[in-house]
């Protein structure tokens, strides 16, 4: 997909025959480069991916929870003593 816009942009630097040959190589319906390229299958319900996401989110949230708890503990008496 990245090469095709470059090919269209630089079509004036190629001969007409070279441009048509390259265009045919990329966009041929039966055996073109974009039609025959294998794509990786999409993983639907992989437990390893879900576990990794949960672990990374927990690691990111844990310091915030600890610091917030410490701040609440330190300043819990501030409101009651200032009245």
TrEMBL record:
<keyword id="KW-0472">Membrane</keyword>
<dbReference type="GO" id="GO:0034975">
    <property type="term" value="P:protein folding in endoplasmic reticulum"/>
</dbReference>
<dbReference type="GO" id="GO:0072546">
    <property type="term" value="C:EMC complex"/>
</dbReference>
<dbReference type="Pfam" id="PF01956">
    <property type="entry name" value="EMC3_TMCO1"/>
</dbReference>
<dbReference type="InterPro" id="IPR002809">
    <property type="entry name" value="EMC3/TMCO1"/>
</dbReference>
<comment type="similarity">
    <text>Belongs to the EMC3 family.</text>
</comment>
<keyword id="KW-1133">Transmembrane helix</keyword>
<keyword id="KW-0812">Transmembrane</keyword>
<dbReference type="InterPro" id="IPR008568">
    <property type="entry name" value="EMC3"/>
</dbReference>
<protein>
    <recommendedName>
        <fullName>ER membrane protein complex subunit 3</fullName>
    </recommendedName>
</protein>
């Amino acid at each position: 997909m990245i090469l095709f816009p470059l090919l269209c942009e630089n079509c004036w630097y190629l001969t007409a025959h070279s441009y048509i040959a390259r265009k045919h190589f990329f966009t041929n319906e039966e055996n073109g480069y974009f039609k025959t390229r294998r794509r990786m299958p999409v993983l639907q319900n992989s437990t390893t991916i879900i576990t990794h996401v949960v672990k990374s989110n927990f690691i990111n949230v844990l310091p915030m929870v600890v610091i917030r708890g410490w701040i609440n503990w330190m300043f819990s008496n501030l409101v009651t003593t200032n009245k």
